């Protein structure tokens, strides 16, 4: 039986077909439940009435009570009038001003009738005025019921159709009153809400929309945030529990000649303590009999690829194949070259499979992969295509996981009789609360040390008026034998104006640096052209690479010591950090120059200052999460949260996330098969909520 919350919003008094259409298109509100979960973004205290003689210029929104004494009209150009009502409460006189809606004003507001005015007072020509305030008939408004007035975000299109924040408030009030007659279904058992001192769901919806005071708002928010985050965590932990229960893993208990030969003869430098710790964690997983699903986080240049390769060699020692998936052809080719360099002189066959590998060569690779002659395969998403078959795939590494969806990761499982062990790598540091929410089904390892000999990149902020001195600094670095990246802000490949800026900028830089050779790379180029230009820079044939963010992931040129980012104000913190990671890969001091204009917003200046203050990717990721919110971070929609967050904030609600995870874990520990009757409220609610439900067992 459907809940009353599933009722079509069109049938709520005050909505109807036209308003339903705009609510649906603009806010995604289609049902009573959708309207209930469209929460206010702020509240204003409506419990007190001020007098006109108490008004001061820096007041927020206030309300006063009095009568309109008279109206005046002032011409404002052709067919435009300003209407001013002179308003008094006996302690003074103020003005109410309208710049439009002439007939509406005269029709609705009368001289000598008592009204309550609500708005922000401003001083104009020595008298306080309220522009387009809320006006209510004083005889119909009871202050005891007003409390805190909610404010709702509305779009321009809604406002043009008469759907303002006040309209949303009235619709919500109508719904709350309607639901007071019908209990709202509870989604958490009494045993849990009592123990955690949470109010009921019915009470929470009432207080979130119509609180009498800040305490009620706080209690409502705590209940609704906990509920959201609890079901996100329960969904993650239920899936992780099912996976561990249903999927055994290959046991790689043997450390053999391949690993030992590499360690004793090919290891290019001593492992850091962090690398040693992570390899031990991976070895423990591989030997457990359970399928490994581990997230490896490490800043750019921290040595993740070496750790991944050494763990792949363990799979080879146990008679299995390994593969590595990367999000782009450039990154896949670079991983191939890095792995081949590491394995120089060893009898291990490593091959590449991407979209550019075609014809007979591709066919030969597929045959040799299926027969087991290829031990390590490096590629893009081409690796998970149905016709790609391994003889014995035991280990898979996925680089830059946020570029791949969950379903793509799951496709690897069908490449073997048991699901292979999976190591997910990312150079994008993930704040703990976000990792818990998005990658909550994975165990986490962190490499938090740089290899010996690496110097931190020095980050400098320059204004675009200082380009002359910047150019001379670039010249000096190139004369010392270094190479330079210059990045233009082509954030989206469809921005033609940015592409034009890059093309024109490239030509201008050729004139500035006639003595040097330049390469150019952007996403609109054909893969072969892009690769050719990139290779010129990698080999040192060109000294300057002019590029867009296409180089953000994966280009490794140890000789490049300068990263210049133009219009740096247009980039997010994580993206700036990723770009900065392209330099500082050799032993020489490297520099990242952030170039902006001088008119920067407070938030942008904060971003630039953070970049200049620290090289710590985790500090930067935490700051980025707080500044931008989780919805803006690349990949959060496709890689983890099964249902949208309406009120919880991953950046700010760390304690509630931890509490929600602890409580969800208790449920899973108590009911690992999700079948106990006393827990049916949880499993039924999960079914209602889940918008994407990958059937892992059916993927083959």
TrEMBL record:
Entry keyword set: ATP-binding, DNA damage, DNA recombination, DNA repair, DNA-binding, Helicase, Hydrolase, Isomerase, Nucleotide-binding
PROSITE patterns per the UniProt record, alphabetical: HELICASE_ATP_BIND_1 (PS51192), HELICASE_CTER (PS51194)
Keyword Protein biosynthesis: no
SUPFAM superfamilies reported in the protein's UniProt record: Nucleic acid-binding proteins, P-loop containing nucleoside triphosphate hydrolases
EC code(s) of this entry: 5.6.2.4
Catalytic activity field: Couples ATP hydrolysis with the unwinding of duplex DNA by translocating in the 3'-5' direction; ATP + H2O = ADP + phosphate + H(+)
EC top class named in words: isomerase
Keyword Transcription included in the entry's annotation: no
Domain Helicase ATP-binding: 285-447
Single GO MF descriptor: helicase activity
Domain Helicase C-terminal: 466-626
Family membership noted in the UniProt record: Belongs to the helicase family. RecG subfamily.
Chain's role: Plays a critical role in recombination and DNA repair. Helps process Holliday junction intermediates to mature products by catalyzing branch migration. Has replication fork regression activity, unwinds stalled or blocked replication forks to make a HJ that can be resolved. Has a DNA unwinding activity characteristic of a DNA helicase with 3'-5' polarity.
Protein name according to UniProt: ATP-dependent DNA helicase RecG
Lineage, highest ranks first: Bacteria, Pseudomonadati, Bacteroidota, Bacteroidia, Bacteroidales
């Amino acid at each position: 039986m459907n809940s009353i919350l599933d009722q079509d919003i069109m049938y709520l008094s005050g909505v109807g077909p036209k308003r339903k259409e705009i609510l649906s298109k603009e806010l995604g509100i289609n049902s009573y439940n959708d309207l209930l979960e469209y929460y206010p973004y702020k509240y204003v205290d409506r419990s007190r009435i001020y007098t006109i003689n108490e008004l001061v210029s820096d007041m927020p929104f206030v309300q006063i009570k009095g009568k309109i004494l008279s109206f005046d009209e002032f011409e404002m150009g052709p067919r435009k009038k300003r209407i001013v009502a002179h308003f008094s409460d006996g302690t003074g006189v103020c003005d109410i001003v309208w710049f439009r809606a002439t007939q509406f004003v005269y029709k609705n507001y009368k001289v000598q009738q008592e009204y309550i005015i609500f708005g922000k007072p401003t001083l104009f020509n020595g008298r306080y005025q309220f522009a387009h305030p809320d006006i209510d008939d004083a005889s119909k408004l009871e202050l005891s019921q007003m409390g805190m007035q909610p404010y709702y975000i509305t779009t321009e299109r809604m406002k043009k159709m008469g759907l303002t924040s006040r309209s949303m408030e009235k619709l919500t009030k109508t719904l709350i009153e309607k639901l007071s007659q019908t209990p709202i279904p509870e989604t958490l058992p009494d045993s849990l809400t009592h123990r955690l001192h949470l109010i009921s769901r019915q009470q929470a919806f009432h207080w979130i929309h119509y609180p009498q005071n800040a305490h009620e708002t706080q209690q409502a928010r705590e209940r609704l945030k906990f509920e959201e985050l609890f079901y996100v965590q329960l969904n993650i932990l239920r899936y992780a529990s099912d996976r561990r229960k249903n999927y055994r893993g290959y046991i790689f208990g043997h450390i053999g000649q391949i690993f030992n030969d590499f360690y004793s003869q090919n290891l290019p430098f001593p492992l850091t303590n962090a690398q040693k710790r992570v390899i031990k964690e991976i070895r423990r997983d591989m030997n457990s009999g359970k399928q490994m699903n581990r997230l490896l986080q490490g800043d750019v240049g921290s040595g993740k690829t070496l750790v991944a390769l050494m763990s792949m060699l363990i799979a080879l020692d146990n008679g299995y194949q390994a593969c590595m998936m990367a999000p782009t052809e450039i990154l896949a080719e670079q991983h191939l070259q890095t792995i081949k360099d590491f394995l120089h002189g060893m009898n291990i066959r490593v091959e590449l499979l991407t979209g550019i590998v075609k014809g007979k060569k591709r066919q030969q690779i597929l045959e040799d992969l299926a027969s087991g002659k290829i031990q390590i395969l490096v590629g893009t998403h081409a690796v998970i295509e149905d016709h790609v078959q391994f003889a014995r795939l035991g280990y898979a590494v996925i680089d830059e996981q946020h570029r791949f969806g969950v379903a793509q990761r799951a496709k690897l499982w069908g490449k073997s009789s048991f699901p292979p062990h999976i190591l997910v790598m990312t150079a994008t540091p993930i704040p703990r609360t976000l990792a818990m929410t998005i990658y909550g089904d994975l165990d986490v390892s962190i490499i938090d040390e740089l290899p010996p000999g690496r110097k931190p990149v020095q980050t400098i902020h320059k204004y675009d008026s200082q380009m002359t001195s910047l150019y001379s600094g670039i010249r000096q670095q190139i004369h010392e034998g270094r190479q330079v990246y210059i990045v233009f802000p082509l954030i989206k490949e469809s921005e033609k104006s940015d592409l034009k800026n890059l093309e024109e900028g490239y030509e201008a830089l050729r004139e500035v640096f006639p003595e040097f050779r330049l390469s150019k790379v952007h996403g609109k180029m054909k893969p072969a052209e892009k690769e050719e230009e990139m290779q010129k820079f990698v080999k040192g044939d060109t000294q300057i690479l002019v590029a867009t963010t296409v180089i953000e992931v994966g280009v490794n040129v140890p000789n490049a010591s300068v990263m210049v980012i133009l219009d740096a104000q247009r980039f997010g913190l994580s993206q700036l950090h990723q770009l900065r990671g392209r330099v500082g890969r050799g032993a020489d001091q490297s520099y990242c120059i952030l170039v902006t204009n001088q008119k920067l917003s407070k938030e942008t200046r904060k971003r630039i200052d953070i970049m200049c203050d620290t090289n710590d990717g985790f500090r930067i990721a935490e700051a980025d999460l707080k500044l931008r919110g989780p919805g803006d971070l690349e990949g959060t929609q496709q890689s983890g949260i099964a249902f949208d967050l309406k009120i919880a904030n991953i950046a700010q609600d760390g304690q509630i996330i931890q509490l929600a995870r602890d409580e969800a874990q208790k449920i899973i520990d108590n009911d690992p098969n999700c079948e106990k009757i006393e827990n049916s409220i949880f499993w039924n609610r999960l079914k209602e909520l889940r918008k994407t439900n990958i059937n892992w067992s059916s993927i083959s």
